[in-house]
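Quick one: structure for this chain?
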Amino acid sequence: MEERLLHEAAEAIAGTVRETPVVPAGELSRRVGARVRLKAENLQVTGSFKARGATNSIRQLSEAELANGVVAASAGNHAQAVAFAARAAGSRALLVMPERASLAKVAAVRQYGGEVVFVDGGYDEAQSEAARLSGERGMRVVHAFDQPEVVAGQASVGLEIARQAPDTRLVVVPLGGGGLAGGIGLAVAAVLPEARVVGVQAAGCAPYIDSLAAHRPVGARSANTICDGIAVKRPGDYTLPIVERYLDEVVTVNDDEVAEAMVLLLERSKLVVEGAGAVAVAALMQGRVKPPAGGDVCAVLSGGNVDATLLAECIRLGETAARRRMVLSTVVPDRPGALSSLLAVVAGRGANVVDVEHLRDGIDLHVGETAIKLVLQTRGAEHSDEILAAAREEGFTVRVETDA
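Got it. Here's what it folds into:
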């Protein structure tokens, strides 16, 4: 794709979408050992980068096509973007979404004026239904990633990074279908050629690993991940060659690592980021991506559309992964006051008790004993080890559980 087309797309969507900020990430920089900046697409209209590609695609439709309306498949972010862009263009949008799509994302789609149709399965099943409805109703499909107009719109993220942070020498970007990563790869190659671009997939759905090795789209067997925004089982026919040419590397992160990144972003950068949007930060935190010898790192936060229930669960997972949440189990005499001495040890070491559970059934206990399960919030790994050692010094046979 010509550089001219990328700049034309950026100009076409200016004023409808935001130029999102690039913000410093002090704690992440300290951990990585390089200056890291965050491209905050979670602050974009509709809450994700998807507004860029959808707006560019719909702006190019004819009056007749706008009158017929558009149809799109999405787990949530693209659906919101298409509904938003269609309303801005005076068209209507039909969005095909998985039945298990986030309730918050479904509600947002409807608030933007979109009509929602649910299907069993995930994104791929939704895409098949969108194609069927397009033929049946004469509506134009706005693909989530596998269209030149969409990729050109997403490329505006890369153009902004080059302008806002010209010292960037490494861009780390979430990789799902490949529209965002491919678009950024195109833009960086054109205007920031000294920089490397690394894509990050969720380990629970990472078809690009096999597809790049085979030089053809290879489908993933599942899409079991909290990163629903990039849980695309099959790379696009259009985007795969772009990713293969313009990305330097593709790595994966698991859900626990993503949750830990979400907590870091929330606590230290004051940014609410969904799972898919946090994978670039997770890859940097876990050392999957090595910082450049010189220059800055830019991690793209692709979206922030996460419902409160999932966010709370991710905070729990993230605290557990960082060893700031610990579950202890022990057996104490089943008499008044037996638990208080254990709680005194915990309190004396400055931990917060989140939950206490007595277990008397289904386990092998003496008639005069009860099992205790404590869920604790700590300051981290060293603090957790200190609490564990103190409890054992007081004579408690304590075991650390993995389920927090």
